[in-house]
Amino acid sequence: MDAPPKPWPTGLAEQCEPLVRRVLAPNASPYTYTGTQTYLVGAGQDVAVIDPGPAGGGVAGHADTNGSGHVEAILAAVGEARIAAILCTHTHRDHSPAAAVLKARTGAPIIGCAPLSMDDDGPRADAAFDPDYSPDRVLEDGERLGGSDWTIEAVATPGHTSNHLCYGLVESGALFTGDHVMAWSTSVVSPPDGDMSAYMASLQKLYDREDRVLYPAHGPAIDKPRQLVRGMLGHRRQREAQILRLLGDRPQAITDMVPVMYKGLDPRLTGAAGRSVLAHLIDLRHQGRVASEGELWSIPA
Predict the structure, then answer these.
(1) What local confidence, expressed as pLDDT, does residue 114 receive?
(2) Which of 23, 133, 185, 233 has the CB geometry, 3.0–4.6 Å to 91, for a possible disulfide?
(3) Which listed residue (2, 51, 64, 94) is catalytic?
(4) Where is the Metallo-beta-lactamase domain (predicted)?
(5) Which domain holds residue 140?
């Protein structure tokens, strides 16, 4: 999906529904679409902040033209309300670093996903893990957190990262999906932390739910959740079948498969596509359906 024409509503508080507003961070990139969307939940005396975003621009190697601007925009949107909780869906650094800044400014606790710090050997330099993320409380699957007029339930959705959580808003049937489900792009699943088997299981978990609307961290809201998730499950199964067909012809390296599988792909995303192919291959190897030797992958004899 192409990005909408500018100007984008960067820094503005947009009303999504009575209990939900969003504020767009200034960190647009080929991986983040128009930027990370921070959600404010609650219309009363206290609010929850979901995915506070980057502390700076959020993209490695890019000058930050509005470093503290996003935190200031969040605080302006919060106004006189109290921030009761700062929640992160996961700890890629386009999602979680501003949590520490918000906590320092407001005293609000950081609650939600577990910490995870590791070297990312993939191409997503803009999505390296946040090594400084330090939650005051980790939410388990199904655990709830409440405010003056809102209740949030944690939904464990590992796959994109092992610590990924979605958050359900009990009062309205909305689900905040982070990077797990997006309408503009499929999620990158990058080993070693990204796990395709876990990702598929998490997609099935969302398909089995009855959420009214999905609010991803990047891109537009999704008002037909089960239809989109069904399509995502089918898309991943098609990729798996495509890999098996290619390897049925001859042993191949990932660099051989990506140009065939992703025709017309933005060259800047070639590395990320290769990581997702690798995630599929690892899953297929666990199933005994493919084998590897060096960089070559093949169908076992």
Answers:
(1) 97
(2) 133
(3) 94
(4) 35-218
(5) 13-234
